[in-house]
Amino acid sequence: MENEIKILYAEDDPDSVELTLAVLEHEGFLVQVVPDGKSAWEAFQKRRPDILMLDLELPKKNGIELVEMVRRMDQDTPVVLYTSFATPENEVAALNKGANDFVSKTTLPDVLVARLKSIYDRICCNPRQPYVYQLSASTVYNSVTRELHITGKTMTMKPLDGMLLTLLCAKCNEIAGQDYLLEGLWGKASVGKESEVKKYILHVRKILSPDTTIEIHSVGRGAYCLYARGLARFW
User: Fold this and answer.
1) For residues 178 and 182, what is the distance between their CA atoms, to the nearest angstrom?
2) For residue 67, what are the contacts with CB-CB under 8 A and spacing of at least 6?
3) Which domains does the chain have, with CATH numbers?
4) CB contact set of 71 (below 8 Å; sequence gap of 6+)
5) pTM for this structure?
6) pLDDT tens sequence for the chain (235 residues)
C-alpha cells in the first residue's frame, strides 16, 4: 500500500484477531490490536489511528459506547464496527452514534479491505466533514445538514427523505435490507410501515434522477441498493 493506513482494532476473540490481522497485514495495513473497550479508549487517546475498527461485544466498554465516547472528542476519525451481531437494530444504533460503517464478520475479506480503503479515501477527501458522501463527480450529500449538491444545484432534503438517503449512502453499492431501513426511519414505531418505505424511495429516486450515474435498485422483499457507478469498482 503506497500510504500505509494505521488501524486500531479492538477485538477480544483470539480467532477473529488472527484471521482479520492476517487479511489486513497482507494488504499493507498497519494494525494495532487491543483486547477490550478500555484498552481501545486508552490507545485511541494516546495516538489517533487512521481508522478505528471495533468489535461490538467488547468487555469493559462495548463498541457502541466507544463510538459515542470517540465522537464527543473527535468528529474526524473513521470508525467501523466489525461484528458477528450484524442486526438492523445494532447497525442503526451504531450509525446514529456516529459510526461511519458497520461490517458483518461474514463479509468476504476482499470486500472488508475495499470498504476500509474506500471509507479512508472518502473521509481523507473531506477531512473536516466525515459525513459527506461523494456519490459521483457531480453529486455530494451531507448527512448532517441534509444538503444535497447535484448537477450544479443545491437543496436541503426533508427529514425522512434525508434519513433514507443517509441509510442508503452508508451501504452504497450493497443491499440495504427492509428491517435496516424500517429501523433507521422509524425505530420501534416501524410496525406496518413497509409500504411507506417504497413511497420515500420514489421521492429520493426522483431527487437523484438528474445524475444518471446514480440509481436506486429494488432487490426484492423491501430491500434496495443505492448504486453509484463511480464507486462500483470496489464491489
Assistant:
1) 6
2) 54, 79, 81, 94, 97, 98, 99
3) 6-125 (3.40.50.2300), 132-234 (1.10.10.10)
4) 79, 97, 98
5) 0.66
6) 456 889 999 999 999 999 999 999 999 999 999 999 999 999 999 999 999 999 988 999 999 899 999 988 887 888 999 988 777 888 888 888 888 888 888 888 888 888 888 778 766 555 455 567 888 889 989 887 889 999 999 999 999 999 999 989 888 878 888 888 988 888 878 788 888 999 999 999 999 999 999 999 999 888 999 988 765 433 3
